């Protein structure tokens, strides 16, 4: 099963990076077909095992409820409200492609990867695939290669492998902390691979010149350091992050004077700081228009206007805010689920990271928390579409790690609690040097 999931991830990334549709009909493409086949095999495997538990059921049931509510409001939008210019079939297919498929991807990775080795293989595949996508983006930006998949906007910002600039930066804010964890966990050749990967990711993020992405990554790391202040050496971690960021800036500024001026202009120019609208890139005006429509019809604060109804309104641009997009279209149900899903995965990862005594699991979950907090901040400034598939795939992998820790906790907890702090190895302040396979308590 891990091999099939890895093939699915690689094919999905190739098709997204090179923007290949390979449609097999309305609402069905090669990557969709592969996803559903692998999902079917995972379900069959779960049935044959019989001992597989339905874990994180609240998250999955709430997601199913969100999909059903989207279907219900989609039906109301064209059958009763009759919005002008409402594309019925297209919006119906969008429920599957930009909503339901994310849950399927989560379940494939969550139930299809059963051991720590499986998760390691799946996560490494996802991160290597992203590294290659970042490499294509960076080399195309500086005219080293020419695959025709990277677009330079009129303002000089890069639209890369994961969609437009702000989406790309938001997704990179999730993955950069995970790259750093992989650097710490590996030695030799693979450490060099992950060092190169994080450098590519940071350079790619700088070429997007996304202020929201920069702020989100910085705030996510600061909040994460506070949460895990008792589990990690905060000063060393921040020093390493600052050093890596400095190297990325030096590399980019050395290679391209154009991006040097663009970054300085967007971050420090007077026009970007003159007022709230300038600092937000005009987003406050967009948000004000959408909220104004909701104020005119107060019931929509609860119900929303209907699935993708925003695009039938006379707005000039997209809402540039994932939370507002869900709220405007699906009301408190949509917004509540989005908030719940982010909180649920972060909370589960924190609890498991604090409880586990397995060094690898702890580091990966801590990095995941850093990244997910960063992403949760970043999507306040952008709508996320293309990267959601990979985000939910990573959610599935990391939640499997968390569930494995919970399953082992009763057996290892007594031994861990009995170990006095003074017995930890010298220089191993946080107990990370302990074996990845702790001894179970002897039977009495």
Task: Describe the structure in your own words.
The protein is an all-alpha fold and 444 residues long. It has one domain (2-409). It has helices at 2-17, 30-49, 57-81, 88-112, 116-141, 165-185, 188-208, 211-227, 234-255, 257-268, 276-279, 283-296, 300-303, 322-355, 359-378, 388-418; strands at residues 23-25, 28-29, 151-152, 158-159. The protein has a two-stranded antiparallel ribbon with strand order 1-2. Strand 1 (23-25) and strand 2 (28-29) form a beta hairpin. The longest helix is centred in the C-terminal third of the chain and has 34 residues, at 322-355. It is globular and about 60 Å long.
List keywords for this structure.
mainly alpha, two-stranded antiparallel sheet, 16 helices, 4 strands, globular, disordered C terminus
Give the ordered list of helices and strands: HEEHHHHEEHHHHHHHHHHH
Give the total of domains. Answer: 1
SS element count, helices: 16
Main sheet: which strands, in order across? 1-2
The strand count comes to: 4
Ends: how far apart? 38 Å
**Quick one: overall form?**
globular
Helix content: over 70%
Say what oligomer this is. single chain
Secondary structure layout plus pairing:
Blueprint: H1 2-17, E1 23-25, E2 28-29, H2 30-49, H3 57-81, H4 88-112, H5 116-141, E3 151-152, E4 158-159, H6 165-185, H7 188-208, H8 211-227, H9 234-255, H10 257-268, H11 276-279, H12 283-296, H13 300-303, H14 322-355, H15 359-378, H16 388-418
Antiparallel strand pairs: 1-2, 3-4
């Amino acid at each position: 099963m891990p091999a099939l999931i890895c093939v699915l991830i690689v094919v999905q990334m190739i098709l997204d990076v090179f923007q290949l549709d390979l449609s097999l009909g309305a609402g069905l493409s090669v990557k969709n077909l592969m996803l559903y086949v692998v999902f079917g095999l995972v379900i069959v495997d779960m049935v044959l095992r019989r001992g597989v538990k339905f874990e994180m059921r609240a998250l999955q049931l709430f997601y199913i409820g969100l999909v059903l509510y989207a279907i219900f409001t989609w039906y109301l939008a064209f059958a009763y409200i009759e919005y002008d210019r409402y594309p019925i079939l297209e919006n119906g297919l969008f429920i599957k492609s930009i909503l339901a498929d994310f849950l399927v991807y989560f379940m494939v990775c969550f139930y299809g990867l059963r051991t720590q080795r499986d998760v390691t293989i799946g996560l490494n595949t996802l991160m290597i695939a992203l590294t290659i996508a970042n490499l294509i983006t960076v080399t195309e930006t500086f005219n080293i290669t020419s695959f025709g998949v990277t677009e330079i906007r009129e303002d000089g910002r890069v639209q890369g492998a994961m969609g437009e600039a702000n989406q790309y930066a938001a997704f990179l804010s999730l993955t950069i902390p995970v790259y750093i964890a992989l650097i710490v966990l590996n030695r030799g050749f693979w450490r060099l691979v992950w060092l190169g990967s994080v450098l590519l990711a940071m350079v790619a993020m700088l070429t997007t010149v996304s202020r929201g992405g920069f702020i989100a990554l910085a705030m996510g790391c600061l909040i994460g350091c506070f949460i895990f202040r008792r589990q990690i050496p905060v000063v060393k971690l921040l020093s390493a992050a600052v050093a890596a960021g400095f190297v990325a800036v030096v590399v980019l500024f050395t290679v391209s004077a154009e991006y040097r001026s663009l970054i300085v202009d967007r971050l420090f120019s007077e026009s970007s700081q003159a007022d709230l609208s300038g600092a937000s890139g005009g987003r406050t005006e967009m948000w004000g228009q959408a909220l104004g429509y909701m104020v005119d019809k107060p019931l929509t604060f609860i119900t929303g206007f209907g699935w993708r109804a925003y695009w039938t309104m006379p707005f000039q641009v997209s809402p540039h805010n994932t939370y507002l997009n869900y709220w405007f279209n699906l009301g408190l149900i949509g917004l509540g689920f989005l908030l719940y899903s982010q909180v649920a995965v972060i909370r589960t990862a924190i609890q498991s990271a604090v409880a586990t005594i397995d060094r690898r699991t702890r580091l990966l979950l801590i990095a995941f928390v850093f990244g997910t907090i960063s992403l949760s901040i970043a999507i306040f400034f952008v709508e996320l579409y293309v990267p959601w598939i990979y985000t939910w795939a990573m959610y599935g992998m990391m939640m499997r790690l968390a569930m494995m820790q919970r399953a082992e906790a009763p057996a290892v907890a007594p031994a861990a609690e009995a170990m006095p702090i003074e017995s930890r190895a010298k220089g191993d302040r946080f107990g990370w040097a302990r074996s990845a396979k702790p001894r179970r308590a002897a039977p009495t």
